[in-house]
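call fold(seq) -> tokens
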Amino acid sequence: MSLEVLKPSITKNVALGCAQILLWGGSYFILSILAEPIMQETGWSYQMVYGALSLSLLISGLLLPRIGKIIGENEKNFVLPYAGIIMALGLTVIGFSEHYFLFLVGWTIVGVAMGMGLYDALFASLGKSYGKATSRVIVQVTLIASLAPTISWFIVSLLLSDYGWRTACFIYAAILLVTILPIHRYTLPPAGSKAAIKPQLNDKKTNPHKPFRSRIYYLLLVNFTVGAVLTTGIVIHLIDILLDKEMAMAAVVSAVAFLGPSQAGVRVLELVFSRNAPVKTAIISAVITLVGILLLSLNPNFAIPGIILFGMGNGMRSILRGTLPLAIFGQENYAVAVGKLARMPLIAQALTPFIGSFLIEQFSVTVFLNACCLLALINIVFFLMVPKLMPQQNESRRSIAVSMANK
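ret:
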């Protein structure tokens, strides 16, 4: 049975991008605005408040392989549409939390919602629906979603100034309740439609997990994990890095402002001009990221070019999280591949803030940046190995397809 797919729709892609803005804003980015008032009211430390976000990332990473499998094996998407409801529940619990334990419970629920609704679950759902057109859809959706920090920070700041942090959580939860489910109902194919037909290759009896025991799978797993560590480490400690270069705070704020536009800009270029295969784009992304970090480690005069290049590399990496597994494992294994490849990066992201802080506090910003440069160099070397393994992977996919056709 061949898998029939939907045709991309600009209207639906914009709607999906808006849903991602709201979901990222209600989870990954919300503490950027609410952390300070939470600490002032409760007396909880910086580590306690942001440790809850790390817990969310950990929960999300542990759940994603299972979530990817559920998306891949069921005609109806039981995951993505309901992420807003679960995230709203988590934010409501956070808003009511007078004790730290309840605060952690709220963020645990948010972590479940992050696994259900952020990029990895979205990419798995898109791959199942759009087939070969998935790459272009991912670029369009992530281009819109790149506005998540700017828009969500504005919304949360407005709510905070008018109502306080607890009510801000409640109102944001209400926004998620009334928007996310309708958007996903509109954009995703209903069960039983031609686009929702499950391919035979996803059958447990005919689709062994051999693709996920291959060398190229483990190579990608390392690449994605290192990329997640670099992104989280640099972004979280970017202000500390620039201040260590003895830049004035006003100059630091101006320099950091280039991060978001550079991420969005490279996605526009990818959408309009790109003819590169995902593997080639991955190598370019890894090289640009290394150059960006190197510039950040040099003279302060190179800070803005370093941030722009790092932002471009990171913007490309977000797209590659969806397009590279599709190119390597094919649509029939895509949903499972995305879930499996997301676990270790998210766990690494949860640990990165603590490891980065340790390196900076115990040694120096320079040591931290040198470690990041080493990781970025390793990532380039590993990505250069991927094209050499592609023929073997493609032959394996063809053999499985022929075997299934003969049964």
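Residues 42 and 98 are 8 Å apart (CA to CA).
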